[in-house]
Design goal:
The chain is mainly beta. The chain is built from no helices and five strands. The protein has a single domain, classed as Nucleic acid-binding proteins (OB fold (Dihydrolipoamide Acetyltransferase, E2P)). It is globular. 15% of the residues are buried.
Length: 89
């Protein structure tokens, strides 16, 4: 019997907090259509991601990959910083 190998799951988002050690909070915006009214709604998901070298700063656009659980709420890892940004105030 062969095992099913899923392709890696990547998400892109903006760093909103870098106050924790080796952890950043990233918001991921996605747009979904309401199933009854068919209006496009913006949904925001806040994820805790592992940042091994503490290179991410607030306002950066980052690429995340889904990994094994690192802690209770942290199972995403920062793959790369796509672009440096200015923090939103």
């Amino acid at each position: 019997m062969s095992e099913k190998v899923d392709k890696p799951r990547y998400w892109f988002g903006n760093v909103v907090s870098d106050k924790m050690d080796k952890t950043v909070i990233v918001t991921v915006d996605r747009f979904v259509r309401h199933r009854v009214y068919h209006k496009v709604i913006r949904r925001v998901t806040r994820l805790k991601a592992h940042d091994e070298q503490n290179v991410c700063k607030v306002g950066d656009r980052v690429k995340l990959i889904h990994t094994r659980p690192i802690s209770k709420e942290k199972h995403w890892r920062v793959v790369q910083v796509m672009e440096r940004g200015q923090p939103e105030t």
